[in-house]
Amino acid sequence: MTFAEVPSQAAVKQLLRQSVQRQHVAHAQLFRGSEGGAALALALAYAQYLNCEERTAEDSCGHCPACTKTAKLAHPDLNFIVPVTTTKTVTKDAVSSKFMAEWRAFVLDNPYQGLNDWMQHIGAENKQGSISKDEAVQILKLVSLKAFEARFKIVVVWLPELMHPAAANAVLKLLEEPPPATIFLLVSHAPEQLLPTIISRVQPVVVRPFSENDLTDYLHAHYQVPEAKARQVAQLAEGSLGAALASRDTNADHDYFEFFRDWMRLCFNYGSKAGDILKKSEDFQKLGRENQKELLAYALGVVRKVLLFGIDPKFVPHLAAGEQQFVSGFAKFVTPRNADLLTKELTDAHYHIERNANPRMVFVDSSLRLGSFLKS
Ligand SMILES: [Zn+2]
């Protein structure tokens, strides 16, 4: 993976490149960022940059033997320690090395996925993955060997917060007495759960969540998702590219913006539009529960935007073409006075749908209340 393949993140990429150019590569670094963010992708791009034989000031070359192997996650000096558990195929002594084929496929498919996705990928959904104490032995064995062909031996530890204390101690020992030419890249979603002794020995690399705009541009450019739709997906994903990629297919047929806009118009006129609200509740029913929840989550995001827009349009710089007109019109009716009520109503509706309430009843009930709040 090259830096260019990771969307946005310009500042942190620059820091990483400079560390190599100035030969200030810390032997242990902690990429910390939320699930669905760029932490793992950046660690991989950095690993490739470190061992590239023809790197430029900007990026790894992408075609030298080291890059080719690293890009396929098949470089003999690129090692992974990841949380695993017993599965149908690995019935005992679960350690990372037994899952490397699965791990490669998982990461190459999408490096922005989280622990649940990984557990599902190895057929261990509902199980707790961990970096076990057996892994401690593997880690020590791994680093006792010299780099085979590259300048650096690289050990990526994905989710070190899931290390068994024995594994954590093995890693700690290596951080205290670093083996030569070995670089540890820890990639964590919950760094606060790491031992303070580990934290104190790693150089932090802070990876910010993607912005709504980053996600919109990425979906639009790489997956040809139309801009308005990409923005809806991005808003729902809350900074997680993993979530955005996962949901771009599942709700491809639904335009939440249109649905929400039409719904709010009906709510506002619910006195004269009761029949239309009943009709709309059938459309809502047809969405199915997962999409109903997504629609409501999307609606919450729009209400927040509308409120911000009403305070100052500058707070909401990026709106799809059709949304702009609606948001500015709707902002007259969403004020600090009723925003809490609207938010609570949509949150409650989401809760009831989650609890398997009848979607049509929830929808009709909510419509009446939303209508009265909008007029208050
Ligand atoms: Zn290269």
UniProtKB/TrEMBL annotation:
Kindly state a single biological-process term from the GO annotations of this entry: DNA-templated DNA replication
**Pfam families linked to this entry:** DNA_pol3_delta2
Instruction: Show which residues constitute the signal peptide.
Output: none
Give the protein's recorded name. Answer: DNA polymerase III subunit delta
The organism's taxonomic lineage, starting at the top: Bacteria, Pseudomonadati, Bacteroidota, Cytophagia, Cytophagales
InterPro entries the UniProt entry points to: DNA_Rep/Repair_Clamp_Loader, P-loop_NTPase
Give the organism the record lists: Hymenobacter montanus
